[in-house]
Amino acid sequence: MTQRIIVTGGAGFIGSAVVRHLIDNTDVSVLNIDKLTYAGNTESLASVAGSPRYEFQQVDICDTEALHELFARFQPDAVMHLAAESHVDRSIDSPSDFIQTNIVGTYSMLEASRRYWSGLAAEQKQGFRFHHISTDEVYGDLEGTDDLFTETTPYEPSSPYSASKAGSDHLVRAWHRTYGLPVLVTNCSNNYGPFHFPEKLIPHVILNAIHGKPLPVYGDGSQIRDWLFVEDHARALFEVVSRGTVGETYNIGGHNEKRNLQVVETICELLDELRPRDGELGSYKELITFVADRPGHDLRYAIDASKIERELGWQPQETFESGIRKTVQWYLEHQGWWQRVLSGEYRPERLGHIG
Q1: Strand, coil or helix: what is 315?
Q2: Annotated catalytic residue: which of 54, 116, 139, 161?
Q3: Is 251 among the domain residues?
């Protein structure tokens, strides 16, 4: 029998990669629940929208009544919960949205899942999974150059965003311990790749460079991140929800630590090769501009992904060099997608509620 999975936030960057992976590479049936905030884009799902195994519902995960209706009708075997506000700068400017979506929304999903799971027959109940997808930012930052985040690293979030994600992680684990809900938690490093919303570092730099605009780098650009190609992440998430041990946490990283300045310079070098500027203008690197650092900016994140490799056999297929080249090429070849995002045209009249 075909497995049925609810994916929340499936019109977002990572969520849409998960949905595309499930439809393209498995026999899973997917119900995508997404509120379609500014970062949700159904155009990222155009390649799978016609599949008989795919359904979309525009629903706010805080709408508990709507969630109960969807669970009762769709009868999922698992939930992959990705819906979240995720941009650190926005969380500093408007933390209330992050508290509402990331904490209250996760609570709503947990309660809807628990109510549905409690009514299942024994065999279905045994097989049900609630998979919560989180971030390495809950751990704070690393001081040493050799330290790595493990699944037991204490939480020390620095921003309203990471604090709200930390809160949601704690709720998920509490629902497992208190109510027995069969949960899984994953914490990932920085994702990048096709369909990434242009406010994030890599697409922002690519598109600014194409338009000859300054390439802003916080502080001196020495902040270190571990970069994970989004399609590698989607594969990992399916492995976890399919074969992970209930109650366990899995860290997912790309083994690609880079300073932010290195990332920007690499993008400039690829653009110099793939779309060189007018000879008189020189390298795209000339556009790099250092700006005041963000408040509470973590210096270094790095993931120890040995547990998921050891227990589930997952490893990233892309190096940073191969993944960033694919990403730059994708943005050069899909101008229509990002132009509609920048202009706001990607936000058509909203689809109807459940009917």
Answers
A1: coil
A2: 161
A3: yes
User: β-strands 249-252, 129-135: how paired?
Assistant: unpaired
State the CATH number of the domain containing residue 309.
Answer: 3.40.50.720
The predicted model scores a pTM of 0.93
> Over 50: is that where the pLDDT of 350 sits?
no
- Residue range 38-61: average pLDDT? 95
CA distances from 190 to 17, 135, 230 (A): 14, 8, 9
Residue 355 lies in a domain: no
The one catalytic residue in 137, 226, 231, 257 is 137
Rg (Cα) of the chain, in Å, rounded?
20
137 is catalytic: yes
Residue 241 DSSP label: H
Strand partners for 6: 31, 79
Q: Is 136 a catalytic residue?
A: yes
The domain of 75 spans: 4-196+227-255+297-320
Task: Domain count for the chain, please give it.
Answer: 1
CA atoms of 314 and 308, how far apart (whole Å): 6
Closest among 129, 87, 111 to 248, alpha carbons compared: 129
Q: Considering the domain boundaries, does residue 137 fall inside one?
A: yes
315: number of Cβ within 10 Å: 13
Q: Is 139 in the active site? A: no
pLDDT tens digits, residue range 187-226?
Answer: 999 999 999 998 889 999 999 999 999 999 999 999 888 9
